[in-house]
C-alpha cells in the first residue's frame, strides 16, 4: 500500500540498479505506478503538463524497472532501474549534476 498526497501523487526517486547512482526524482499517481508495475518501464505524472509520461518515449532513454520499493512511511517510492540512456532532459546521465555546496 502507498500513501498519495492530497493531489494524488507520490514522490519517486529513480536509482541506477547496478551503480546505486541517483538519476532523477519525479512524481507518480496511481495510474503511472500501475503502468510502471505492469510494463516494467518507468511512467510518471507530469505536474506541469498534467499528463502521464513514459520516460524515454521521445528521447529513447527508457528506464527498465528492476524493482519498486516503498519507504517505511509508505509515502516515497524508489525505482531501481536499468537506464537505456541519460536520465536528464539536458542530456546528463543524472538530473543531479549541479553542486550547491562542498
Description:
With 102 residues, the chain is mainly β. The protein has one domain: Ubiquitin-like (UB roll) (Roll). Helix content is 10%, strand content 36%. It has one helix at 30-39, and strands spanning 10-16, 22-28, 43-46, 51-54, 63-70, 77-83. It has a four-stranded mixed β-sheet with strand order 2-1-6-5, with helices on one face. The protein has a two-stranded antiparallel sheet with strand order 3-4. β3 (43-46) and β4 form a beta hairpin. The longest helix is centred in the middle third of the chain and has 10 residues, at 30-39. The model has no long low-confidence stretch (mean pLDDT 96).
* Largest sheet: number of strands, sense, barrel closure: 4 strands, mixed
CATH architecture heading: Roll
| Span between termini | 38 Å
Structural class: mainly beta
- List the domain count as a whole number: 1
Which range does the strand content fall in?
35-45%
Task: Work out the helicity level.
Answer: under 10%
- The total count of helices amounts to 1
The chain-level mean pLDDT equals: 96
| CATH domain topology | Ubiquitin-like (UB roll)
Count the E strands.
6
CATH C-level: Alpha Beta
Stretches where pLDDT is under 50 for at least 5 consecutive residues are none
Shape: globular
Strand order of the largest sheet: 2-1-6-5
Name the CATH superfamily classification.
Answer: Phosphoribosyl-AMP cyclohydrolase
What letter string, H or E per element, gives the SSE order?
Answer: EEHEEEE
Q: How big is the Rg? A: 13 Å
